[in-house]
Every structure is written in structure tokens, then in C-alpha cells.
Design goal:
By secondary structure, the protein is α+β, with helices and mostly antiparallel strands. Helices cover about 60% and strands about 15% of the residues. It contains nine helices and six strands. It has a four-stranded mixed sheet with strand order 1-2-4-3. α5 runs antiparallel to α7, α7 runs antiparallel to α8 and α8 runs antiparallel to α9. The longest helix is centred in the middle third of the chain and has 66 residues.
Length: about 290
């Protein structure tokens, strides 16, 4: 499953319509930042819990909106009379000083800042809980659908790239046993140029040098571990589930093994294949960063 996605959901009741909108991007851990209206602040913990039950990684941002019915809105309107008196006293004092007519009317209260207050009753807010749960669940379903769809595309791409890595590793493995023999032939050729006419094939010092080189250049263990990491990564893509962190770890380990192979092999052909392997592995590393 990808960590990139978006989803929206809504639920309507007799008091209000609750709307939820969520977006997610890649993040190593699960980080949630969903904005709620101030009167829903007590629902922040349940919202976080519901999201954590559905998702395990990603930066989740979003917003919860409440659209009250006209009836519910009318029931929640209150006039802050103390503030209205203060506004009116200040305005009338200014009118007297400026010698203006005192023609303020009740309708003018609408233009005074913060005089009309929407105060939703605690019981009404509590009744929003099931609507909020339902709207958030719908948003999460759509978010997960999008993440799953993109995850399937990422999985196909990763399988193709891992197959390419497995083929590159197989070519390196085929070449590896020939490295010591190629080194022996090259060393003999150089020595014959320097010491023409001498029989060097059975020289003990030469055989010892070749044996030391073969030991230093042996990459059998690294290839075994590399094949294991590749097999585990491909197995994770088959089984699915939460795989991002494990894939990230396996990619790091593959990088460590291929670097060791490149430094030990001392062979031009293997070096070229190692460069190709690392280039493809870096593309995989970028893709893995977006997998849950």
C-alpha cells in the first residue's frame, strides 16, 4: 500500500452534516494533523485513535467541518449583551463628541463585532459523535482505496526492478569463479613480458600470490546474503501487508553487500555490473520510501 492518497466522506443527521477530508504523504512514522472546529476539540483523541486503527505510516493531514441545519443554528444564537452595551456606550460617547445624531437601532447590533455568538449546546455537540465517526470512516476508506491502487502500481514496478537485480546478481555469480583465473592469466602475461623464456606456471610464489588474490576476491558470502535479501523482498511483495520498513531495511542491506562485492571482486566486468545494480537499487530505494 502506498502512503500517498486522499479521501473525503460525509454523514448527515437532523442537526448537522459532518464532512471529513484526509490526505496522506510518505513519512517514516504515523504523524496526524487534522483540524477540528473549536467546539469539537473534545473529539480530537477519538479522531486520532480512529485514524491510527486504520493506518500505520504516513503524514496524515485533513479537516473536519460541521454544517449545522438552519434550525440548529438558530437555537445556538446568543447575544452578548454586556459586549453590546460596551459597544453602544462607546459609539454614543463618540457621537456626542462629534455632534452626530444618536440614531442607532437594534439592527445595528448585527454590525458590531462578536456581539452575535454561536454557542452550540453540549448535548447537540455530543450528538455529532456518530456522524463524525461515520464521515471519518468514509474518508479513510476512500483514502485507503487510493493508497491501495497506487500501492499495486508500485508493487508491479518493484517486482520488475527486483527481477532485474536478481538477473544482475546471477551474472555476477557466473563471472565470479573466473576472476582468479583471469588474474592468473594476466599476471603470467605480465611476468613473461618481464622474464621472457622462463617457465612460471608452476612457480610456488606465483601460485601463492594467485591463491591470496582468490581469497581476497572471494565474494561467495556476499552473493549468498544478496540472494537472501532479494528473495525476502520479493516474498514481501507477494504477501503484502505492512512492508515499507522491512523493504527499506532490505534495500540498505543489499546496498551494503553490493558495495562489498564491488570493492572485493577487482574485476572490470563485475565492476560494471555492480554499477548497474546500484543504479537500479537506488531507484528501488526511492520507491520504497512511499510504501506503508
Amino acid at each position: 500500500m502506498s502512503m500517498t492518497g486522499r479521501g473525503a466522506g460525509a454523514a448527515t443527521g437532523s442537526l448537522a452534516r459532518v464532512e471529513a477530508e484526509l490526505s496522506s504523504v510518505n513519512r517514516k512514522t504515523l504523524d496526524i494533523a487534522v483540524n477540528l472546529p473549536r467546539f469539537l476539540s473534545s473529539f480530537e483523541a477519538p479522531v486520532q485513535h480512529q485514524i491510527r486503527q486504520a493506518l500505520s505510516r504516513g503524514r496524515i493531514t485533513g479537516e473536519i467541518r460541521v454544517v449545522w441545519t438552519p434550525r440548529a443554528q438558530a437555537a445556538s444564537v446568543r447575544v452578548d449583551e454586556a459586549l453590546a452595551r460596551a459597544h453602544l456606550a462607546a459609539l454614543r460617547a463618540a457621537a456626542r463628541r462629534l455632534r452626530l445624531p444618536d440614531n442607532l437601532q437594534a439592527a445595528d447590533l448585527l454590525n458590531l463585532p462578536d456581539v452575535l455568538v454561536l454557542e452550540h449546546r453540549t448535548a447537540d455537540v455530543a450528538r455529532l459523535a456518530p456522524l463524525l465517526t461515520k464521515a471519518l470512516a468514509a474518508a479513510l476508506r476512500r483514502l485507503q482505496t487510493m493508497r491501495r491502487r497506487e500501492g499495486a502500481a508500485l508493487g508491479r514496478d518493484l517486482r520488475r526492478r527486483l527481477n532485474a537485480l536478481a538477473a544482475a546478481a546471477a551474472r555476477i555469480e557466473t563471472r565470479a569463479p573466473r576472476v582468479a583465473d583471469a588474474y592468473r592469466k594476466a599476471l603470467l602475461a605480465r611476468l613473461r613480458d618481464v622474464l621472457p623464456g622462463q617457465d612460471l606456471a608452476g612457480d610456488d610464489r606465483l601460485l601463492k600470490e594467485i591463491a591470496l588474490f582468490a581469497d581476497r576476491a572471494d565474494i561467495t558470502e556476499e552473493l549468498v546474503r544478496l540472494r537472501s535479501h532479494l528473495a525476502q523482498a520479493r516474498g514481501l511483495l507477494r504477501t503484502g501487508g505492512v512492508a515499507g520498513r522491512t523493504l527499506d531495511f532490505l534495500v540498505q542491506e543489499m546496498g551494503r553487500e553490493i558495495n562489498t562485492i564491488g570493492s572485493k571482486a577487482n574485476d572490470g566486468d563485475i565492476t560494471r555490473r555492480v554499477i548497474t545494480f546500484k543504479t537500479e537499487l537506488e531507484r528501488i530505494r526511492e520507491q520504497v520510501q512511499n510504501i506503508e
